[in-house]
Amino acid sequence: MNKAEAIDVNLYYKDFQALKNINFSAEPNSVTALIGPSGCGKSTFLRLFNRMNDLIEGVRIEGQVLLDGENVHQKNIQVDALRKKVGMVFQKPNPFPKSIFENVAYGLRVDGIKDKHLIEERVIKSLKQSALWDEVKDKLKKSALELSGGQQQRLCIARALAIEPSLILMDEPASALDPISTAKIEELIYELKKEYTIIIVTHNMQQAGRVSDNTAFFYMGELIEYDTTKKIFTNPENFRTQNYVTGRFG
Amino acid sequence: MLLNKDIKQKAAFTLFTLISLMVIAVLFIILGFIITKGISAISWNFLTTAPSDGMTSGGIYPAIVGTFCLIVGSMIFAFPIGICSAIYMNEYMRESRLKGFIRMMTNNLAGIPSIVFGLFGMALFVNQLKFGDSILAGSLTLGLLTLPVIIRTTEEALKSVDDQLRIGSYAMGATKLQTIRKVVLPVAFPNIMTGLILSISRVSGETAPILFTVAAYFLPKLPHSIFDQVMALPYHLYVITTSGTNVEASRPIAYGTALVLIAIVLLANLLAGGIRSYFNKKHKIN
Predict the structure, then answer these.
(1) ipTM score of the complex?
(2) Nearest Cβ partner of A107 from B173, B183, B187?
């Protein structure tokens, strides 16, 4: 069964149609890159899976968005419960002004988990998974805002992992970081793939090529082409895809 | 041409400097005046005894206690209502005409002269609700007066919280209430506190709203319940400088009272600054 799936999805911001008849699916333990020029709808599409578009006024959605085969827009789906199954990492690192420990524990605490051992265990595990543990193990009580930008972003990944999501969404997670931090995040994505399914929006073609198994090219709200990353980058079917990945427009 | 520009630049800069110095100078002149005139009146006795001999000697203890009661009373009323309204306005309400209208009315409320609040407080709390001249009526009136200030400062404090933090919290599966409680309020807290403390200094100095609602001309005993009248520093100051039994003889006491009042306001402001920098350091926000 597909981890994440979209069937005939249309999305409107008031009168403007931002997504046009999208059909998409992502297999478990795969990394899917969403590429395309600014305003093509790829971030909007990403946010369908944890219903972050709900926060924007005047959004109307048609079609089905499935997570593990279940429609996330069904009436009986509680949106906060859904978001606990879907971790999200944003463009700009946005750690809470709390300690490093509390940042990672946040999702567990809002889930009502009180068991100290469990929380500690999960925090440590998540920090190790996000390759941050060695750098912060002696200063877990320090403010997260003391960390560098790259460390903050890995902390945000740890925060998303702590709730043990089944799907991880990343919205240009490395675009605000320096090359070394970017490399670390990419390595991390490669490692995380073993346990998680990842969908990542990126503006960086090389990054899409390096980290993803499949790539979806969006243009003007349409999913123009969706195939293995190798095919998209070496032998795309559509001329627009070819122009974009070869840098002729974008 | 270049020279001309240089001269203009220098002239403008000098003018700005002079004007800002003048502002500071005015403040220091007032402070210096009050301190030099009032310091001789200040003693332990002055702070801890009631006025005597037709308010020409003795202390201002009941007025200090009275002002303190009014600060606490008005804040008990105005803090929760003000903060909750601001949270509702900023976190729950969508931008709409109604919100614009409420905001406009809040601003208008802040612009109403304090004596009008005094009259309103007298009509509603003292007469209509039959609280009489009392701490309760005075506190409610003062609370109404500071409500718009608290709402506006709290709203500004909430607005300055980065939306990315809210979005990050929602993405973790937090509800709106959890997000407000665990992320938004802690971040906004120093700025909210600053607004609250500034409104305390406002409350402690207001005379008009308490004139008809609580303030006593001369009442050497301390209040026993919220339905008692009290003396209050600003009103006491007004009384002994204009309509005391012997205005000339009361003069040093008047300056002493003014000094105490100013000291309370300054302390409140210092406290606000202290709290702000403490929490900013704690959260590492600049």
Answers:
(1) 0.90
(2) B173
